[in-house]
Amino acid sequence: MNQRTISQLSSFCLVIVLAFGISGALTVIPKFEKNHVRIFNNLDNSVLFYHCKSKDNDLGLRNLQTLFFCNFWYTNSSKIKFHAVFDVFSTAVEFIQDCGGYYCIWIAKEDGLYLYNVETKTAVKKHDWEIGLQIKM
Fold first, then answer.
1. Residue-wise pLDDT tens digits, 10-32
2. 21 vs 132: CA distance, rounded Å
């Protein structure tokens, strides 16, 4: 082979190595996951009201990015009012593990509010209802 062919072959190999190196490097860049919260009403014949927001945004139930909390309330058939206020989403590792990923499912029942883990398919009671008027947000 002549000098020009060797130079072209070296350049071609360098381009291939760089291409695979760059594509490999791009795959290690973490993806930004979309975060979701879903709320289910498992109350017997009661309407569940809720209002969700963060420190900076009042978005309702949408894709979440950082820390969001909600105010929940309902009135049972005996006209007793119940409420609870707590974080429904956080980017903390422990919280993501409790959810089983970036999709958090909350279930409202008469005895409290449960967080459903999508990986283990189990619901764990996280919050009790408080009796009285709801907290204004």
1. 444 444 444 444 444 444 444 44
2. 61
Kindly give, in sequence order, each residue whose CB lies less than 8 Å from that of residue 78, ignoring residues fewer than 6 positions away: none
d(CA 24, CA 27): 5
Strand, coil or helix: what is 98?
helix
| Cα gap 79→132, rounded to integer Å | 11
Answer yes or no: are the C-beta atoms of 46 and 75 closer than 8 Å.
Answer: yes
Q: Which two tokens stand for residue 113?
A: 């509010």
Starting at the earlier edge strand, list the strands of the sheet with 122-127: 36-41, 103-109, 112-117, 122-127
Residue with tokens 């381009």: 15
Residue 20 and residue 49 in contact, taking contact as beta carbons nearer than 8 Å: no
Please name the amino acid found at residue 8: Q
Taking the complete model, does pTM exceed 0.85, yes or no? Answer: no
- Can you count the helices (H) and strands (E) in the chain? 2, 8
